[in-house]
Amino acid sequence: LKELSSIVTERLSSRLIEPEVTAILREEKPKLVYILGEVKNENAYPLDRSPTPLQAIINAGGFSTIANKKRVLLLRDFQDGQLKVMTLDLSRPGDSPGRNLQNIALRPNDIIFVNRSAIGKLNHWLDQYVAKPLSGVTTISSTILQLIILDQVTE
After folding, report:
1. How, if at all, do strands 43-46 and 32-37 pair?
2. 37 near 67, Cβ under 8 Å?
3. Which of 61, 103, 127, 138 allows an S-S link to 41, with CB 3.0 to 4.6 Å?
């Protein structure tokens, strides 16, 4: 705010004699972290309630049943525009926190993405490529069976 006040004062000094400018912040943009992927409630959460990745995931309702706790991604955007991706192992909280980066301090606009486990990926594939296509076949075959039965009853 001091920098803003000095810039405005400098620009006004060409038009006014000794201008005095005070910048006041009325409302600060909330500092948020974003929790996505295999958690119960994907959303943006206040940083002050989510200082570490595990606490942020707990605020999001915890891991889903098909979460891969060993490959949680932390995406961080640095001021130079570079995106850094860190892989966290949150499978055993409290076990070697330095090595697994479990207790790394979150920063505003960090994104935590919880991957799907291998069994979760298999389940999704089976649902998408086996169960859903066969559900149409089952419906068609049961309709044909009903027509055959109806045809035999009416004869």
Report:
1. antiparallel
2. yes
3. 61
Of the candidates 76, 72, 75, 43, the one whose C-alpha atom is nearest the C-alpha of residue 59 is 43
Beta strands in the chain (DSSP E): 32-37, 43-46, 67-77, 83-88, 111-116
> Model confidence over 108-120: pLDDT tens digits?
999 999 998 877 7
Question: What is the rounded distance in angstroms from the CA atom of residue 92 to the CA atom of residue 121?
Answer: 22
- Rounded CA separation 89/97 (Å): 9
Residues in the chain: 155
Report how far residue 2's alpha carbon sits from residue 23's, in angstroms, rounded to the nearest whole number: 7
Q: Read off the pLDDT of residues 40-73 as tens digits, 9 standing for 90 and up.
A: 999 999 988 878 999 999 999 999 998 999 889 9
